[in-house]
Amino acid sequence: MSLVRVHNFSVSLDGFGAGEGQQLDAPFGHAGMRLMQWATGTRTFREMGVPGDSEASLGVDDAFASTWRAGIGVEIMGRNKFGPQRGPWDDEEWKGWWGDDPVFRTPVVVLTHHPRPKLEMEGGTTFHFVDADPVSALEQARALAGDLDVRIGGGVAAVRQFLEADLIDHMHIVLVPIVLGRGERLWDGLEGLEERFDIEATPSPSGVVHLVFTRRTA
Amino acid sequence: MSLVRVHNFSVSLDGFGAGEGQQLDAPFGHAGMRLMQWATGTRTFREMGVPGDSEASLGVDDAFASTWRAGIGVEIMGRNKFGPQRGPWDDEEWKGWWGDDPVFRTPVVVLTHHPRPKLEMEGGTTFHFVDADPVSALEQARALAGDLDVRIGGGVAAVRQFLEADLIDHMHIVLVPIVLGRGERLWDGLEGLEERFDIEATPSPSGVVHLVFTRRTA
To answer: What stretches of A61-165 adopt beta strand conformation (E)?
Structure first.
């Protein structure tokens, strides 16, 4: 069976995966780019068009970042990752943050209570808008992925829901040593999560710690 | 000026330094020994009388654990670390968790709203019961420490108060990869803490990550 994977998902020391006040010009709210600073130095994120002010690095941050694509046949993302709108779609002109040629290059299932027609982009990305619980969303995603793996792309609520439903096999969390104080908590409702995973920690000279969660086999 | 230091202070992935329901037979509440498991393998904690079921280790966990004593002239601890009682002292027979010959071997300032006479123990430990805010408690502790450093020994509320008051110079936090779900949060009210510290991360084969916070010089 194909795996369900999370990659490059940053959380603060106090467990927030996004700050307060997420909006169009601040996708991470008051956290700004602090949660993703480590990634802007990597070749992987530069190739995705993320700007950075230093030479792109091939160090440990890039080694982890680069694993996000291989073997992935579909992404599932929450509505909050797709865009800043909430509620019914006032404007179907919004096509995500990623321009005409999004980085995904696979089908992408967008979880929303307000379905709309699928959206075919350049380069192989098609957004499918689906109103479904995690189990049935995963079923629909697997049908689009063939034998390949499924990535849960975020945001915080989406990752937490799939963890609650015990559907995640592999999870790469980037612990960023900052205290955000407010925002969306990743770990809420997940008491005892560690019993289901082996967890490996690798620090980076950039200051973050890469945590890899691998589901324990029964 | 002598330093104010925190050592061997464990927190969970979700930021709890103790679980819910702390009491006489469960000093960490529902967390049990999970937050301190890493320490029970070290020679330093064995020498303090903490039982363990394996050969004592001199690896990275012990290297960090062992730094708690050198150069320390006094400890400040919260009432909750001293004992499970709350409110007025019904029973002054309680002399802490540590037996007749406590591990500290220095003066120990116990923060409490209910002062009682000082308590001289064997081996150099004397408990002083003091009703004071962090600044004035630190002043009293420094008077007892001579030129030596001050350790903030916990519990969670004590460490958080000294961080809020910006009185900590060095802090060794042990990030334990568990999700406790409930208990006492260390990081609450400390938004932006990272701006005051350089932070270094070292993983251990035991699974924990040692975080060392060093106050930035102005």
So the answer is: 72-78, 107-111, 119-120, 126-130, 149-154
